[in-house]
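Hey, quick one: can you model this chain's 3D structure?
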Amino acid sequence: QVQQVESGGGLVQTGESLRLSCEYFGRTFVRNAMGWFRQAPGKEREFVAAIKWMDSSTDYADFVQGRFTVARDTASNTLYLQMNNLKPEDTAVYYCNAVAQNFGNWNAIAAWGKGTLVTVSS
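Sure thing. Here's the predicted structure for all 122 residues.
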C-alpha cells in the first residue's frame, strides 16, 4: 500500500536549486512528524531533515549547513524540501517518511517509498 510518493528530483548543476515534494497518505503520516532521508550510491541511508507536527519546528543534519528548508502543507498532506546551493555530494535518492525521535536521532517509522533521484553535476 503506497503511503507516500516523492517527486521533484532531477539533474542540476552545482549551485542550483531543487524543490522536492512528498505527498503522503494514511494515519501513520498525518499528524506525525515527517522527515527526509537520502541514500547515495554505495552508502547507507541518512537523515536529512525533519519537521514536527505540533509546532512545525525543524531539525537538520549538519551537512545541510543552512542550504535546505523543510516545510509541510497540512491541508494537502504534502511535505517539501527546498534545496539550494546544491553540491555533487548531495547526489542521492531522497525519501520521505514519518519519523520519531529517539535519543536525539530521527528514525523512520513506516515503509519506504520509491524516492526521487537528485543528481548534481560538477
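One thing worth noting: The chain is about 0% helix and 50% strand.
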